[in-house]
Structures are given as structure tokens and as C-alpha cells.
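Action item from last meeting closed. Structure (568 res):
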């Protein structure tokens, strides 16, 4: 995903030294000067180093909770990452790994830390990384060269510093590696020989230029206000980076995410700089949903074609959280694009359940034994589908809370066969049997992603798999019944007297499934079926059940859960 944007670097100038005042002559409708084309260095400066994995630290941060994480390098350098509560759109496990050795070409010594997951993007606010020197050590301000390493080649760029902080505090818009080099010659002298090699892409090139410009302005004030200082860079950024990304947003989810993050970062920083009444991009925030639709469509296609069902709800929750962070409110509910995002969830999360089962009941001893047998079959038509629940903390089962949504199903008919009631008592005879079907439903279906062996969330490939399903069933009992005619038995074992007839409603439902269900453990107020054998593909999972009671009831059944997404 894209980075927060070059204007984030302007935070280094938000002190008493600079102001951002467009002035009375500012007109957002004027043509923008795109400036000179951005030239990507053919031989970018690259870092080399070794990570000290033994000193890595991990922490999980909720999307609305925030927190801090600290890693300490072997030489005593301390890296503290602070994550605001509005920085993330989903709960994320963050890893910080200090470098044991690092060479950047920026100074006599370089110290850094790698932040993972790589590319993690902040939303509407920055994360802060404070770097503290080892005890008893000081770093001259004019010799500090803050940097970031971008991409698989660890290309070196300058990093944004919070100028208002007395500490070395970097403003983090996305995750890669960050740190500082200690230059013996001073900031400007250090950059003189390598500046043309900094930044491996257009965005990092401009970020580096802005950082260098603001640093020079702090050292030798020119009297220009922040608007005058940054406008050329802002114009180049809008014309050469933002607009092309918006134009390409519809081609793929990767392009759409890059465009969304670029616009969010740009507009947020414009507000922080004081340009709150001028939309330099003429961008309607509701258009974000158009780009979100592209990503939700790709998630649906993964669900439909590869039967990956665990990703689409977190993806949609990200859309909702973005909506909340931007304060779009009721207007978002009227957006056709927002509805289209939600509809892809409905199309994906559809399941059918097939059940083949037998129930039996035996009571009495000797000549008084009574048995009942019946088989049932639920064809794979008990459809369950996603039911909209956009509450961030839905009530109900804990595993449903974890999914952020509910999947509900309606009733489907099941048939019965082989209904048979037998009495060993020679004075009792079955005069008629009437099989009768019933109805079965998956009132609630949810699932949890697979986790790593140690219980942690695991890598993306692991989380894409289902760890278990949870199904809350409901039953409208079947109506199978028989009529038994009973005469009295005399002292000699014979039968006498007038037969008395009665109707007995013993069947699969009340002599098998119902008591079996009542024996299940419960969560909240509901019983649920869990412990599935995960298959994957069209057949998502199976479960075989064998149950018996001391009262002579036995129940066996094989459940087959299938994924049945809409074909388009």
C-alpha cells in the first residue's frame, strides 16, 4: 500500500518558526504547475544490515485502542513506537526488530529498527517512533540524519521528524525500517554526496526533497512562510503522484488501496497545515467507496473461486471503520457504492448443510422390550447467508463477536424414512405408522480463522484458512407417529379383553436429535455445533456425531457443510 505522503514531512515545520497561510491570493481553481518531472535515481543508495531477532518484540493493537511497544538494541538504543487509537482499521500484531549491524551510507554510524508487518498503513493519523540514545550518550542535533529504508532493496530515504519534540521522534505513516545515522560532518555536508541517490521511487524522492528543504530552512531561515516553501512540492505531488494514482484506482485493488491511502494522507496533512477550506484535489470523500468496491470485488472473487471465507468480513469492517474515522455518517448509508461493498459480503457468505442421520430408542426388558428406528435426510438446501450486522461489538457468542458479523439461515424441509416401531409384548401390535418430515435450520453460522500452533494469529496464509465453524441449529420436529393396540395379558401369558388404541409420537426428533442437542455445552444462551473437520473447497467441513444415553436412546449423524457463494 502507499505511504502517507510527502506532506506528512511538513510536520517537521509545525513550530513557532513557520506558518501555513495561503493568503488572500490563493485560488484552488488555478492551474497547477506540475514542476519538473521527478527523476528516479538509476543507482539508489541502499542499506545493508543484520537484524537482531533475539531482541524482537511483539504486541497486538486493536483498531480503536492504540498503545506502545518498545525494543532495545544491543548497544542500548531504545526504540518506542506509539500507535494512536485512530491509526489502524483492524487489530494488528506488530513486530519491532532492532538491527545489530546497519550501514546506510549516511554517516559514521547508523541505528535502526524494522517495523512489521511491512507496508502496514496508518489511516488518518501518524504513528510516532521515538529513538533514545544509550544511557550516557548524546546526539548533536545538527548531526542527526533520520532515515527510512524502503522496499525489498532497503533503498534509503530521509524520514520525517516531529520538530516540536525535544526527542528524536519520527512520524510513521507506513511500516518499513526506520532509524538515524550520526554524521560527523553535519546534516548538510552528509547529504551533499548522496542526495541524488536517495529515494527509489517518485514519492520517496519528493519526501526526501521536502525533508532536506525544511532542514535547511530551520538552519538558515529565509523568511518564507510554510505555504511558499512547500507549494512547489505540493503541486508536483498532486500532479505527478496523486492524480495518476486516482486515475489508475479502478484497475485493481492494489491500485485502489494505494489511491485511497494517498488521498487520505494528502488531505489529512492539508488540514493539519491549515488548508481546511480548499480541496486541492476536488475529491469527494464518498468517492472512496468506489475504490473500496474494487477491493471488495476482489475479496469476493477469492471467496467464490478459492473458497476463502475468512477475509471478507475483516475487509468490510475496514470499510466501515474508514467510514467512521472520516465522519461520513448517515450519508454513507445512502451510497450505492457502499451498499455494493456490503453486497459482496452477502454473496460470499452463503452455506448449505447436508445431514444424514439415524435415531433409535430401546426400553424395557424381556417380553416388554419396545424399539423405535427412524432415518432422516436433510438435503443440502438449508441455506444460511450473511445477515447485516454493522455493530462493532455485536452481542451474542464470543466467536461471532470475533467475526464482526452474523450469518443467519432459514428453515428447510427434511424427509424421514425407515420409520419402525416394534413391541416384543405379544399383546401389543402396531396397527398403523405415519412417517412425517420436519424442518431444520442453521439459525447462526460463524467461524474463526485458523491460528498458528502457538495460538498467535499466524501469517496471512494461515489466517485465510478456517480454524472451526460454529453452528446454532434449530428444529421444527418431524411428526412421525404410530398407533398401537394393546390388550391385557392374563396370568397364563395370553392376551384378553378389548384392545385399547393410542397414538405414540416417538420419532427421530424427540428420540434422537433433541436430547442429543440438549447434551451439548452451551455458550451464552445457545447450543452450538463446533469441532468440525475442516476440508476446504466446496465442501468446507464435515462432522460425524455418535451419541447414546443411559435411557436407551442412540443418535448418529453426518453433517456436511458446503460453501455456496453466488456465482456472480
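Sequence:
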Amino acid at each position: 500500500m502507499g505511504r502517507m505522503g510527502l506532506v506528512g514531512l511538513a510536520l517537521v515545520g509545525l513550530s513557532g518558526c513557520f506558518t501555513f497561510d495561503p493568503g488572500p491570493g490563493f485560488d484552488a481553481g488555478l492551474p497547477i504547475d506540475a514542476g519538473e518531472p521527478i527523476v528516479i535515481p538509476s543507482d539508489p543508495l541502499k542499506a545493508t544490515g543484520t537484524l537482531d531477532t533475539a531482541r524482537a518484540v511483539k504486541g497486538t493493537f486493536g483498531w480503536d485502542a492504540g498503545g506502545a511497544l518498545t525494543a532495545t538494541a544491543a548497544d542500548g538504543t531504545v526504540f518506542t513506537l506509539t500507535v494512536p487509537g485512530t491509526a489502524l482499521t483492524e487489530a494488528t500484531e506488530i513486530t519491532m526488530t532492532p538491527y545489530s549491524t546497519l550501514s546506510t551510507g549516511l554517516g559514521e554510524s547508523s541505528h535502526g529498527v524494522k517495523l512489521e508487518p511491512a507496508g502496514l498503513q496508518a489511516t488518518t493519523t501518524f504513528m510516532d517512533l521515538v529513538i533514545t540514545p544509550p544511557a550516557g550518550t548524546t546526539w548533536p542535533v545538527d548531526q542527526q540524519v533520520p532515515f527510512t529504508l524502503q522496499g525489498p532493496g532497503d533503498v534509503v530515504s530521509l524520514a520525517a521528524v516531529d520538530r516540536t519534540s525535544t526527542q528524536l521522534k519520527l512520524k510513521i505513516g507506513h511500516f518499513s525500517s526506520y532509524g538515524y545515522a550520526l554524521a560527523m560532518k553535519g546534516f548538510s555536508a552528509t547529504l551533499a554526496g548522496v542526495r541524488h541517490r536517495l529515494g527509489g521511487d517518485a514519492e520517496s524522492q519528493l519526501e526526501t526533497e521536502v525533508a532536506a528543504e525544511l532542514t535547511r530552512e530551520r538552519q538558515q531561515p529565509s523568511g518564507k512562510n510554510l505555504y511558499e516553501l512547500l507549494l512547489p512540492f505540493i503541486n508536483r505531488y498532486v500532479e505527478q503522484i496523486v492524480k495518476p494514482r486516482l486515475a489508475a484506482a479502478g484497475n485493481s485493488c492494489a491500485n485502489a488501496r494505494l489511491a485511497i491511502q494517498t488521498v487520505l494522507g494528502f488531505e489529512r496533512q492539508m488540514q493539519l497545515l491549515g488548508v481546511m477550506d480548499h480541496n486541492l484535489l476536488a475529491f469527494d470523500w464518498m468517492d472512496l467507496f468506489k475504490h473500496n468496491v474494487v477491493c471488495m470485488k476482489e475479496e469476493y472473487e477469492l471467496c467464490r473461486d478459492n473458497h476463502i471465507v475468512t477475509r471478507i468480513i475483516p475487509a468490510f469492517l475496514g470499510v466501515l471503520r474508514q467510514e467512521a474515522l472520516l465522519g461520513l455518517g448517515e450519508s454513507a448509508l445512502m451510497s450505492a457504492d457502499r451498499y455494493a461493498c456490503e453486497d459482496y459480503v452477502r454473496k460470499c457468505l452463503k452455506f448449505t448443510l447436508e445431514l444424514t442421520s439415524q435415531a433409535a430408542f430401546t426400553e424395557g426388558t424381556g417380553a416388554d422390550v419396545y424399539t423405535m428406528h427412524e432415518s432422516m435426510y436433510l438435503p443440502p438446501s438449508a441455506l444460511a447467508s450473511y445477515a447485516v450486522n454493522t455493530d462493532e461489538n455485536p452481542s451474542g457468542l464470543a466467536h461471532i463477536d470475533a467475526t464482526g458479523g452474523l450469518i443467519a439461515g432459514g428453515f428447510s424441509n427434511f424427509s424421514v424414512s425407515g420409520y419402525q416401531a416394534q413391541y416384543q409384548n405379544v399383546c401389543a401390535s402396531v396397527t398403523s405408522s405415519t412417517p412425517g418430515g420436519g424442518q431444520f435450520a442453521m439459525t447462526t453460522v460463524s467461524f474463526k480463522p485458523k491460528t498458528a500452533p502457538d495460538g498467535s494469529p499466524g501469517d496471512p496464509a494461515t489466517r485465510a484458512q478456517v480454524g472451526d465453524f460454529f453452528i446454532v441449529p434449530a428444529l421444527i420436529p418431524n411428526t412421525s407417529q404410530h398407533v398401537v393396540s394393546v390388550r391385557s395379558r392374563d396370568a397364563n401369558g395370553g392376551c384378553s379383553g378389548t384392545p385399547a388404541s393410542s397414538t405414540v409420537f416417538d420419532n427421530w426428533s424427540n428420540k434422537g436429535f433433541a436430547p442429543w442437542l440438549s447434551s451439548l455445552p452451551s455458550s451464552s444462551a445457545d447450543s452450538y455445533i463446533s469441532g468440525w473437520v475442516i476440508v476446504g473447497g466446496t465442501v468446507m467441513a464435515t462432522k460425524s456425531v455418535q451419541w447414546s444415553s443411559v435411557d436407551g436412546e442412540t443418535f448418529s449423524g453426518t453433517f456436511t457443510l458446503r460453501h455456496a457463494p453466488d456465482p456472480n
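Note appended to the action item: DSSP finds eleven helices and 26 strands in the chain.
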